[in-house]
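FORM 7B: Structural annotation worksheet

SECTION A. Query
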Amino acid sequence: MIETGRRSINDVGTRRHIARTLGLPTHVFGVTDGGDADFAAMVQFGDSTIRLAEIARQAGRAVDAVNELWPLIARLEARATEGHIERETLVLLGQARVALGVSLGTVLPEERLAVAARWTGRALIIAERLEDPFFLAHTLRMHGNELRKANRVPAAIQRLNRAVDLSSDREGQGTALAFLARAAGEHGEPDLFDNAIEGFRDLLDNGPARGMLFNPFTFREIQLRGLVSTDRAAEAVQVMRTSHADATPAAPQWHIIERVTAGQVHLAAGDRDGASEALRTALTAAESHRLPHQIQRTIRTAQTSGLTEISADGQAALLRLNKILAPPESDL
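SECTION B. Predicted structure
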C-alpha cells in the first residue's frame, strides 16, 4: 500500500522501523539522526578528499595521498559491511579504492605491490556494477597498470586491451595505450608494443595533450623502455640521441622514472659514465620522494651492469626508506 501510494507514513517511528527491517539507511525515508548527518557530510566532502589525494600524488606526495584516503576508505568500508550500499556510497567507495590502490602502487616496494592491485581490483568489482562506462574504463586502466607492476602482465594486458576499447575520450584512450605499451614491452611482445605506441603517438599528434600519462614526456620514456625490453636497444639509443625529454614532466616521479630508463639506454650504448650520472640522479630523487619501487629499479639496473657502488648506495637508501614507510600488512 505504501508503494502504490494508498497509504502514507508520516511518523518517525514507523519510518525507522521500515528502514531497520529492510536494512536501509534511515535518510532514504526522510529521517536523519547524528550518524546519518555525519554520513551526509562524509559524502559531501568525500569527493573533495579524493581529488586532494590525487593532487598530492601527482605532486610527488603519494604518502600524503594514502594518509588522506585511508580514513575515508575505512568509514566507507565499514558502512558497506553494515549493509548500507546505496549508489552514492558505491560510487564514492569505488573512486576511493582506485585512488588508494594507485597511491599505494607508488609508495610500496615491489614485493608488496600486489596489495595495490588488490585495491584497484576491488574497485573494478564496483565499477562493473555501476553502469558508468567512463568510470569503468578509468578503473580498468588503473587496475591493469597495477597488475603489470605486480608482475601479472598477461592479466594486465587483458584489462588494458579492454580499457582501450572502452575509453571514449582522447586522454583516457591515450593513457590506456600508454599503459598497454608499457605492459607489452615488459612481456616481450614487440608487435603489441609497436601497435600501442603508434596509437599513442597518433593521439598526441592529433591535438593538445594533457594528463599524467598523456604527454610527450611520458611517450618518450615509455618508447625508450619498451624498445630496450623488446631487444631493440640500438633503436632506443637512436631515439635518445635524436629526441629530447620535455623539461617539465607531468609529475616529479616521472622525472625519476625517466632517469632510470635513461640509465638503461646509456648502458646499452656502452656509456657507463652517462648511466652512472642518470642512475645517481634517480636514486637521490627517489629517496627524497619516498619511491622504493624506483630505487629497486635503479638497484637492478646497477647490479646487472656491474655498477656496484650505485647498487650499494641504493640498498642503503632502500633500508632507510623502508623504516619510514611500510605500514603493517594488516592495515592494508
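SECTION C. Observations
Residues 147-250 form one domain. The chain has three domains: 34-131, 147-250, 251-332.

SECTION D. Sign-off
Analyst initials: ____
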